């Protein structure tokens, strides 16, 4: 494994682009592999790795002052990877994109169905933390397949109130399960993490 000597860092601190290209050559694959182990996504690993190098170039004037350069670089990569995981765990837009990609997987694999069922149990436990009225609205919508208009008429509430109850309930459930999604991703199974998203989106 190649090491970085202070002379190379000194050149980079002076804005030497060739020296920075050498740094890129030395670290690119190592950073990619490290980030990929965390995110389990090649595209994400590529993007984060490029982001790390961009940050290094932006603060190039101070790189020579870093005592343990390899540790510093991988710490940046780790932090950016964790930031990505946290965002993925709570971002409903990312959840919708994930759902589109894994429908076949969750339908065809028996082990996937078991995991989804287990996670559905977690969703059900989260629902119990909702207020009684929100629980009622949520179950009428998801279990009885009633429209907002039907629920509003049934409970003698306005349609906007029903809609707000559903939006707040879904937000709470996503937040409640966010830590679970993140945990499964850290365990190392991208497939399982995907199935966590299914449990949320089916709720």
Protein model, in words:
The protein has helices at 6-13, 17-39, 42-58, 69-90, 92-108, 110-127, 132-142, 148-155, 159-187, 190-201. Helix content is 81%, strand content 0%. Helix 4 (69-90) packs antiparallel against helix 9 (159-187), helix 6 (110-127) packs across helix 9 (159-187) and helix 7 (132-142) crosses helix 9. It is mainly α and 203 residues long.
Oligomer kind: single chain
| Helix content class | over 70%
Biggest sheet architecture: none
Instruction: Based on Cα principal axes, name the global outline.
Output: rod-shaped
Strand content bin: under 5%
Computed over alpha carbons, the radius of gyration is 23 Å
Return the string of H and E elements: HHHHHHHHHH
Number of strands: 0
Structural class, please?
mainly alpha
User: How many individual helices?
Assistant: 10
Average pLDDT reading: 75
Query: Are there runs of 5+ residues with pLDDT below 50, and where?
Result: 97-106, 182-203
């Amino acid at each position: 494994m190649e090491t970085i000597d202070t002379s190379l860092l000194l050149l980079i601190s002076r804005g030497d682009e060739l020296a920075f290209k050498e740094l890129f050559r030395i670290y690119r694959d190592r950073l990619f592999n490290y980030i990929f182990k965390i995110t389990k996504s090649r595209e994400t690993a590529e993007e984060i790795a490029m982001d790390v190098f961009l940050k290094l170039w932006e603060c190039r004037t101070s790189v020579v002052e870093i005592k343990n350069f390899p540790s510093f670089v991988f710490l940046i990569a780790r932090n950016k990877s964790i930031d990505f995981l946290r965002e993925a765990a709570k971002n409903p837009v990312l959840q919708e994109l994930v759902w589109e990609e894994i429908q076949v997987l969750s339908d065809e694999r028996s082990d996937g169905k078991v995991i989804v069922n287990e996670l559905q149990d977690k969703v059900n436990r989260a629902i119990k933390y909702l207020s009684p009225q929100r629980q009622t609205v949520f179950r009428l919508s998801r279990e009885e397949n009633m429209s907002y208009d039907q629920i509003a008429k049934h409970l003698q509430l306005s349609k906007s109130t029903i809609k707000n109850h559903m939006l707040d309930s879904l937000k709470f459930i996503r937040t409640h399960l966010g830590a679970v999604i993140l945990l499964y991703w850290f365990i190392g199974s991208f497939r399982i993490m995907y199935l966590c998203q299914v449990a949320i989106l089916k709720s």
